[in-house]
Amino acid sequence: MDWIARLLTILAWLGVAALLILLYRIAYFYEVSARRPTHYRWFLAPLALLGLGGLRYAWVNTVVGDVIGDSLLLAGGFVLILLGMFLLREMTGGRR
């Protein structure tokens, strides 16, 4: 049963990675089409941080309480929120 939990953890984080890659491609498309800088390459940072956090949790096979995994996920989420807000502001022209 241990390998099932690890496999499901990895599959869940692959879904998250797919959504982050989609957001990366949206930012790239907007930069190319609108010719406005979106710094789309920065979206690879939360992808790496969240991916490493997910791999850490799959490696230690725990649900909560891993300080390194929690720190990676927290940093990745924080960077993703900041980049998402920046991209939203850039794409909407600063309107709310």
Strand content: under 5%
**Total strands:** 0
Radius of gyration: 16 Å
Number of domain units: 1
How would you characterize this protein structure?
There is one protein chain. This protein is mainly alpha-helical. The chain has one domain. It is built from three helices and no strands. Helix 1 (2-34) packs antiparallel against helix 2 (44-60) and helix 2 runs antiparallel to helix 3 (67-92). The termini are far apart. The model has no long low-confidence stretch (mean pLDDT 87).
Short recap of the structure:
With 96 residues, the protein is mainly alpha-helical. Helix content is 79%, strand content 0%.
Write out key terms for the chains shown.
96 residues; mainly alpha
Secondary structure layout plus pairing:
Elements: H1 2-34, H2 44-60, H3 67-92
